[in-house]
Specification:
With 759 residues, the protein is an alpha+beta fold. It has 3 domains: 208 residues, Aldehyde Oxidoreductase, domain 4, CATH 3.30.365; 157 residues, Aldehyde oxidase/xanthine dehydrogenase, molybdopterin binding domain (Aldehyde Oxidoreductase, domain 4), CATH 3.30.365.10; 360 residues, Aldehyde Oxidoreductase, domain 4. Helix content is 30%, strand content 23%. Strand 7, helix 3 and strand 8 form a beta-alpha-beta unit. Helix 4 packs across helix 5 and helix 19 packs across helix 20. The longest helix has 28 residues.
Amino acid sequence: MNRIAQPAGPAQPLAPSRRSFLIAAAGAGLMFSFAGGVDEADAAAAYAPTIWYGIDPDGVVTVHVIRAEMGQHVGTAIARIVADELEADWSKVKFDHVDSDPKWGLMVTGGSWSVWQSFPLMSQAGAAGRIALVEEGARLMGVPAASCQARNSVVSGAGKSIAYGEIVARGELRRSFTADELGKLPIKPPSERRLIGKPADARDIPAKTNGAAVYGLDAVVDGMVYARPKLPPTRNDSSVVAIDDSAAKAVPGYLQAIALQDPSVTVPGWVMVDATSFVAASRAADLVKVTWKTGDSAKVSEADIQARAAALIADPKAGSLVVEDKGVDAAFAGARKTLERTYTTSTALHFQMEPINALAFEKDGVFEIHTGNQWQSLVLPWLAKALGRPETQIVMRSYLLGGGFGRRLNGDYAVGAALASKAIGGKPVKMVCTRPDDTRFDSPRSPSVQVVKMAFGDGGKVIGMDHAASAGWPTEVMAPFFMPKGVNGVPYDPFAISGANHWYSVGAQRVRAISNDLANRTFRPGWLRSVGPGWTNFAVESFMDEAAHSVGKDPVAFRLALLDASGRNSGAADGTSAVGGARRQHAVVARVAELSGWGKPLPANTGLGMATTFGQERDMPTWTACAARVHVDPATGKVKVEKLTLVIDAGTIVSPDGARAQVEGSALWGMSLALFEGTEFKDGQVKDTNLGPYTPLRMADVPEIEIVFIESTEVPVGLGEPATTVVGPAIANAIFAASGARVRNLPIRPKAVLAAMKA
């Protein structure tokens, strides 16, 4: 077995008895479990009604989680969904994070999808186990199954009772459920839930706080070498001409520098520097001199990327029509008044706590990649192409992520580690990036340009709206199979335009998404927490504020009038998670206005700004509203956020503590992106590569935060990202309320506020 280093001591054997769990009728799989596994003898006797969990003879339930853990406690949430429907004793429930295997289906953790996608499947899986256990428990007790019920891992009826563990140990549990059968199983009504929505500590907290948790950076195996990449000047069009490692040979432990050959074109131009320790590899990499041949992207600047976006928007034929109502042009031609504004956002970086890393080696004909990753199903085909072998001969071992935020959806770094291992005959290579390496090889949130227009009729009535957005498209570059087609038949990246297709009733509406080809060539655009809605909602909600003021209406009243739930914004019960539609968004706006004291007098240079979004995607809306109270220093333009008030309707809240933590984190991320975070491209690379010049939100800047969840029994939707989308525009609107300065670029710097005040 491989050896996994524990943070507090030397490498220890990865004992199968603690780390393995045999899934009945499905074969064995290596899985990481916060609470440990079960003994192999017990595992062999376990019962698994579906592949998603098993129950051992001691009554311990182990839920198998395909979602990556990066601080959001997703395992606890999913385990509670199963346990509630299974009627399991929560003290006997644990979970593990599984390795890649085709049987799990799509393995991805992003888009705030985890609980939303898992809820129906895991609920039905829990129901399947409960049904089977009740049936077999009744048989063992000699009573009718109809007289029995399950509670707290015990089946009881007719004055008798039997525990789940005893049923597994003594019974003849053979019943399994197909996917079709699972889909037809009824789940209990909300009134009967005993775990969902109730407070509970996340199961992974002890391991994360006592040092027992194992992250990708902790993975080691016997005989491995360390490696640090020597990165080329450009992301996409560099090739190695020559390597001079003469100076590096003076570093003790230095082994070699190898130009990687990558058929997948994931890491073009990479040189991997190998050594017996990471310190040696890092020092040697600084001394290795590489000559590269580069393309014209080595000259590209942020201004070039933004200029290209503006030019593309100016071409009415460019891009994909995501929304295209009849009469948009006629509405503008016959309007009493029109309004047009341009909004921009700068390049933003991930800067997750744990720099990217991966351990790769070949063992028994299988290439193993040990790393933290958010989208195994995306990376496996890249690895297969790079290594020249089928995906069935590659496995990605799951580890905790020291921060993901979308960076590890793009598992490109795993390809570099795998190729480095292949270059030395499949021997183990642990590739680790320094912070500057990580930043230079990041997949940033693309800079963006958006032009938003509105047409008004008599009495300031909104009769038309046109929104065009251009940015680099991560899905086009890395996962084009995820791209739907627009009304005009042109594919578009939903993660670069969602949010623009809002729930306001604005008459004839057009939404146009345009891929910035120059951005796509210069770097690999990435999914950064909230992705496109991080910029689209900034434009929509800033513009709604400007539109309200332009026709002399209160910004809250203006929004409420447009959130009338008519037409396609009704959210009719059509099988999606948008039941209630704009009516629910109307409710969170009204509530946040009430809580924040909207309309009440404020001190000088202090303003209240408001914004509302549906989070990200129309088929899984998280209705969100934010009121930001800020103070603007009229002498310096410095903005101090005093309080953020957020009201959220996310349907059923599975884990209240986890939900609150998610909103707190995403709201502060949104504030950081609004006021502090941002860099620019210069000569084909990001200018800032460490946390000195790149300055995220600091603890001293954290404001008071009030979070209110609307009680609901509707489908649970996403919570990891929606608050990120609403804080930025709320702050921008508050700055206007406090100072009269309208800023239309993120991040909002004091210099820009001062300039806007003068304007």
